[in-house]
Design brief:
It is a single chain. Helices cover 37% and strands 10% of the residues. It is built from 10 helices and 9 strands. The chain has a 3-stranded antiparallel β-sheet. The protein has a two-stranded antiparallel sheet with strand order 1-2. It has a two-stranded antiparallel sheet with strand order 5-6. A hairpin with an 8-residue loop joins strand 8 and strand 9 (368-372). It is globular and about 70 Å long. Residues 184-236 are annotated as: Disordered. Residues 1-359 form the PI3K/PI4K catalytic domain. InterPro entries: Lsb6/PI4K2 (IPR039756), PI3/4_kinase_cat_dom (IPR000403). GO terms for molecular function: 1-phosphatidylinositol 4-kinase activity; ATP binding.
Length: 382
């Protein structure tokens, strides 16, 4: 009743109700087929737990069966526990934060050029996924970013030029006297024992002591003169900087795969279209990755077939509505391939007219009909 009386406030008229778990798993399927690697692995599972929402009669029936089994162990029931519930199960990702948090940080702390390029490629994969499945609920708070800033690794003298990670040598104050130089490559030696006159004994002999003095003087002079292997510079040595790491995770895909383009009240835009990354044309990397596959109609129909097997698990599966869902997805793929060939940007992609590609029924071979959707939503976003 609320959907009929006030559709602008409740639900989405372009989506099939109660199929959010299939949409989550379907997004993971499309991500896996295109090798985008932005959606955490998601599968349809059947689980039971007392914390789930069950009707009172189901809970009472489970308790009654348990009591009967305790008094009559030979009694047999087809199901002892609560009824199984079907839903989507998604792999949890660690170290990620809302994209909105990192995007604000990146405005004041720009990324290094190499990291910015990696982020742009990850962003384009998100765009490809959302556009194909026509995600109607993509804000900047329901996709995640994991960013590990670069760290400078310090070098410690006496290691033969090797880098020691995480080791910092503190500077001693002048009041503590001369600093002692220790070679970390040499095994520890026993401290000299004092003689009767109070002076430390030297078991190495005079020649060894002379060599030690020469080594000490040479070390001292080498410290005063700049090393030929590492000339002094005011800039950090980027060879010892741990490279930064950035990844995107596209979660919350439960409101995708509509059976028609939004045409009632709201347009359900992609909020990433207002980001500066959306104004950059698609890179050659993403074109080489997805364009050959999406241009092959056999590959597109292979995705549709696998989605059919997935969506058939729902009790209320309707083949007619599923074909309409695939018609919208084919139209999205058609627009995407055209935008990639023309060198457009993501923001230009979402401005393209909505297309529906329907498959003709009763034909042995693939026969498709293309048409544009003329009706627009009441509240448009362009």
């Amino acid at each position: 009743m609320h959907k009929l009386c006030c559709p602008c406030c409740f639900g989405r008229a372009c989506l099939i109700p109660n199929q959010g778990y299939l949409s989550e798993s379907g997004a993971s399927l499309v991500d896996r087929k295109l090798n985008l690697n932005v959606v955490p692995k998601t599968r349809v599972v059947r689980l039971v737990a007392e914390s789930f929402n069950y009707a009172r009669i189901d809970r009472q029936k489970a308790k009654l069966k348990k009591r009967i089994k305790e008094h009559y162990p030979s009694a047999h029931f087809n199901r002892m526990s609560l009824p199984l519930k079907t839903g989507s199960f998604q792999l949890f990702v660690e170290g990620y934060k809302d994209a909105d948090y990192w995007l604000r940080r990146f405005d004041s702390e720009p990324l290094p050029p190499s990291v910015a390029k990696s982020f742009q490629l990850q962003f384009e994969r998100l765009v490809v996924l959302d556009y194909i499945i026509r995600n109607t609920d993509r804000g900047n708070d329901n996709w995640l970013i994991k960013y590990v800033a670069p760290k400078i690794t310090t070098q410690v003298g006496g290691t033969g030029g090797r880098t020691m990670h995480g080791v910092v040598t503190p500077k001693l104050p002048n009041a503590l006297g001369a600093s002692k130089i220790v070679d970390l490559n040499e095994p520890p030696q026993a401290s000299p024992k004092p003689t009767a006159d109070g002076r430390p004994s030297n078991h190495m002999g005079g020649g060894a002591a002379t060599n030690a003095q020469q080594d000490s003087s040479s070390l001292t002079s080498s410290e005063d003169e700049p090393s030929s292997r590492s000339p002094p510079t005011s800039e950090p040595d980027w060879n010892v900087v741990n490279s930064a790491f950035i990844r995107i995770a596209a979660i919350d895909n439960g409101l995708a795969f509509p059976f028609k383009h939004p045409d009632s009240w709201r347009a359900y835009p992609y909020h990433w279209a207002w980001l500066p990354q959306a104004k950059i044309p698609f890179s050659e990397e993403i074109k080489e990755q997805v364009l050959p596959q999406l241009s092959d109609m056999n590959f597109v129909e292979e995705i549709c077939t696998e989605l059919l097997y997935l969506f058939q698990q729902d009790r209320g599966f309707d083949k007619r509505l599923f074909e309409r869902q695939m018609s919208v997805m084919r139209g999205q793929i058609l627009n995407l391939t055209q935008a990639l060939r023309d060198g457009k940007s993501p923001v230009q992609l979402v401005q393209m007219p909505a297309v529906i590609v329907e498959r003709s029924s009763g034909s042995r071979f693939f026969s498709f009909t293309q048409r544009f959707q003329n009706k627009s939503p009441f509240f448009s976003w362009w």
